[in-house]
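Hello, quick one for you while I still have it in my head. A protein chain has come my way and I'm curious about its shape. Can you walk me through what the tokens say about the fold? No rush at all, and the record is pasted right below.
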Amino acid sequence: MAVTQEITHLENSAVKLTFTYNNEELCAKYNTVVGDFAKDMQIKGFRKGKAPISVLERKLGKLLQEDALNSIIADTVNEAIKSEYFPKDALPLSYSDPKVEGEPKLDLSSELVFSVKYDVAPQVTVGQWEGLDVEVETAELTDADVERELNQIRERNAIVMDKEDDEAAENGDVVTVNYSELDEKGGEIPSSKREDFTFTLGSGHNFFKFDDEIIGMKKDETRDIQKTYPEDSDDELAGKTKQIRVTVTALKRREIPDDDELVQDIDESFQAIVDLKQYIRKNLERDLEERLERIKINRIIEKIVEQNPPSIPESMIAIEMFNSLRQAFGMFNIQNADTTRFAQEAMKDETRRLEAVKRIQASLVRDKLIQQLNIEVSEEELERNYENIAEESGTSFEEVKEKYEMDGEVNEYLISDIKHDMLNKLLLEKNTIKPGRKVNLMDIFEINS
């Protein structure tokens, strides 16, 4: 390509790509582009595609030059980044389209200089990854933990029954509502509208957390709520005042089963509540062990990242926050939410941005370690995982193997998971975990690490 280009690496894994056409090269490129336009144009007095460039210029004037400039820029950038000689570390991320800087002008009497800017994949360097000392909190399972989990099981197995129409909503009721945020004029904001949203009153499992404001409402009652959120809230509502319109469409009460009924509902082999408690304790012990192991691994990764933290581009942060919100909305069964708008709001929250950056950095370092340590999955290891999946799903090994091998994408996900498990085992073997402060079980499960 007869044009000079200059690559400048910027902060936050961004690149500025500058092109320069001298006058001769520019005129040649311009004539080529306009000639391509002419092939599809019908100008009065000429056969289709036969009108001279000079005629097109008189007819279309500035519009032709603008279209030609846009085509020159697009063609030049695409040819550059698709060239086999273009540096791999300067290739744009798939979701970061090159954006033209400034307002370049097309002047056929002089040279053309223009620049585009875009994000590239972060450069990841792994320093010391073994022989590290990390400190992790410790916790012991108590009878109170078992009792708390038992109460939650009681709640989950409660019988839900309709309340009478004249009965008011109380904490613990299962309520179904339609709601939407209101604008300054009292009109509904369409993107915030939810219908048939069901949750347990008092759980706080609704985006606007209007549990207290619904208490006392009856079926088919509508209420406009004004709610101001504390400055220290840990979400994008912090410090804001919202107007929300809520209509209760259904109201149900929960009736907790007695222990004998509960035991039989959980497992017919259980004879008494003590059997259920033993079952709960065993599961909590397993969950605690797994959670502590994840925390240990994450702390090791954090320490590795601290040595050479990858510079994360804005587009990658935005994608991470968008996906995180979409996952959260799915968890709370929030449908038709404007995820993009919420993600843009979340981007302004430095705490949330930092959390997203840390997640991305950890993921990049993990992948780099797998590559650097040449961690590969043998056929024997893969088949052992097929056997585990078959056992857990109650199907045959042959059926599982055939299913995974037929779906290459699903199989790649499984292989990736196995590689990460192998890396985790290696990290635990090669580093030292020191016991830290003692905390309770719930603290362990709330640790954001």
